[in-house]
Specification:
The protein folds into 2 domains: 39 residues, no CATH class; 87 residues, OB fold (Dihydrolipoamide Acetyltransferase, E2P) (Beta Barrel). The strands form 3 sheets. A 5-stranded antiparallel sheet has the order 4-5-12-10-7, with no helix packed on it. It has 1 helix and 12 strands, in the order H-E-E-E-E-E-E-E-E-E-E-E-E. By secondary structure, it is mainly β. Helices cover 9% and strands 42% of the residues. The longest helix has 13 residues. Strand 8 and strand 9 form a beta hairpin. This is Biotin carboxyl carrier protein.
Length: 139
């Protein structure tokens, strides 16, 4: 992949207002993400948990990228990062998203109690999909 092809990919990312674009060919892998309104090429960042408050008072933690969501700590274990009813703090890992053999931690941006885990271990997720609903702590 040459420089001009990469420039076209960055333009496509901006023009289509995409959050993430990953492209591979024979021996090259390009991963581009929108970051603070600008495109950053070749940089892989952790999947950020994007909180969004709903009218029910629950905050939804959403997928920050496309991939496969895992709540289990490893494939041979039944131990999970979080379960419904668990109290979590801002910055706690709630799982990870695997995309193209890259594992990105998903961390909470809110403290509170997990009311619902929306996706199951191993489910495919897309950017913005709701992963977990949290009842925020009372201030």
């Amino acid at each position: 992949m040459n420089y001009e092809e990469i420039k076209k990919l960055v333009k496509l990312l901006k023009d289509e207002d995409l959050a993430v674009l990953s492209v591979s060919d024979n021996d090259t892998h390009i991963h581009i993400e929108q970051k603070d309104g600008g495109a950053v090429a070749g940089e892989s960042t952790p999947a950020a948990a994007q909180p969004e408050e709903k009218s029910s008072g629950l905050i939804e933690i959403t997928a920050g990228q496309i991939g496969t969501f895992y709540n289990q700590k490893d494939e041979n274990s039944e131990e999970t990062f979080v379960s419904e009813g668990d109290k979590i703090s801002k910055g706690n890992q709630i799982g990870f998203i695997e995309a193209m053999k890259v594992f990105n931690d998903v961390k909470s941006d809110v403290s509170g109690t997990i009311e619902e885990i929306v996706v199951s271990n191993g489910d495919a997720v897309e950017f913005g999909d709701v992963l977990i609903r949290v009842r925020p702590e009372e201030a």
